[in-house]
Structure to design on (319 residues):
């Protein structure tokens, strides 16, 4: 049988509690503070005698009392520990972050463990709250997630225009076509290219050509909805996928875009470069075999617009 702790053992345990680099708070069943170690004192600025027997929620009014009391009650009734991690809640109590490496965050990220403490009659009379500073771990993970997100964004973005690259918008188109096949949803595709673009490159140089492409892309971005996907097909050719849009809606969009581009002038080295586009429109009202055929329809309409004199909109299947 284990001998009970004598005074010296208890004193040594308290020294350990005071020196460890985690927060230790012991609460009674009424959530009053009975033990408060040096970690808590250093980060809160409040000595133990100031918080002794005060309500935890008076000392930390930012704590969600209903949620935390429910947590404590669960630990008390079940007699088993409970945990929270920073990914669920960034912190239990709001402490400032003083770590120089992760100083860009103003608060400490925390993991928390709640441990039931039993009296000699096995009744849970107190709960120990242990607070771990995991700010560095949290910041590193968030930075890694942000970096991965940026890499993913770059992998699907055309660098010159900021629009979706061909691989990404074709994948979006494939998924939209699958949605159409299953639910008979409507979608339209607008394909267009810049008229006489070779003349721009030959007459003004490739930097001017890039500037024209970027100017057109900026107008496209201003016209599309959040649900639309605008992408660069290749060279001076572009595509815009319009979900839940019929051919008439797509034709209106294409005509507005055509007029906006025609009203635009690109300035390069003191010279003004006029720009127009030709556009082809197709929708999924007719039977199709796959999403590639959808692209062929819009491209066929685009070819008709170019053959018809350029700077115009043509609809696939229209006379």
């Amino acid at each position: 049988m284990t001998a009970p702790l004598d005074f010296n053992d208890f004193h040594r345990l308290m020294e350990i509690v005071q020196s460890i680099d985690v927060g230790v708070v012991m609460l009674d069943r009424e959530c009053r503070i009975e033990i408060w170690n040096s970690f808590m004192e250093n980060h809160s600025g409040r000595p133990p005698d100031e918080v002794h027997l005060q309500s935890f929620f008076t000392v930390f009014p930012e704590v969600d009392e209903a949620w935390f009391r429910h947590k404590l009650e669960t630990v008390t009734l079940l007699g088993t520990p409970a945990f929270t991690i920073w990914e669920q809640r960034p912190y239990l109590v709001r402490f400032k972050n003083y770590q120089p490496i992760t100083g860009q965050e103003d608060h400490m990220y925390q993991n928390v463990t709640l441990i039931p403490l039993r009296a000699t009659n096995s009744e849970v009379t107190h709960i120990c709250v242990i607070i771990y500073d995991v700010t560095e771990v949290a910041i590193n993970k968030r930075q890694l997630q942000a970096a991965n997100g940026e890499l993913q964004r770059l992998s699907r973005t055309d660098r010159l225009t900021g629009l979706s690259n061909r691989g990404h918008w074709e994948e979006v188109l494939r998924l939209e076509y699958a949605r159409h096949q299953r639910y008979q949803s409507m979608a339209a595709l607008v394909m267009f290219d810049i008229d006489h673009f070779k003349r721009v490159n030959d007459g003004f140089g490739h930097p001017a050509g890039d500037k024209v492409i970027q100017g057109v892309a900026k107008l496209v971005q201003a016209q599309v909805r959040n649900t639309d996907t605008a992408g660069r097909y290749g060279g001076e050719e572009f595509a815009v996928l319009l979900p839940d849009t019929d051919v008439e809606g797509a034709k209106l969009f294409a005509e507005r875009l055509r007029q906006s581009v025609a009203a635009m002038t690109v300035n390069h080295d003191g010279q003004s470069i006029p720009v127009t586009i030709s556009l082809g429109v197709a929708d999924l009202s007719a039977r199709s075999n796959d999403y590639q055929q959808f692209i062929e329809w819009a491209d066929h309409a685009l070819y008709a617009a170019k053959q018809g004199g350029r700077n115009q909109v043509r609809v696939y299947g229209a006379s």
Summary: The longest strand covers residues 124-133. The CA atoms of residues 259 and 276 lie 8 Å apart.
